[in-house]
Amino acid sequence: MKRKISPLDNHANQLNANRGTKGVNKYYAKVQGNKGKQKNPNYKK
Length: 45
What we know:
Elements: H1 7-15, H2 26-39
Helix pairs in contact: 1-2
């Protein structure tokens, strides 16, 4: 069972790229994917 994440922890994770470490912060990766999707000129709201 996954642990519930608080809004403050989620916000911190979204800003943390984990530079210099091995692995990926899944919350950061999700934000970057959504940002790229929205910047796509073919993206329809």
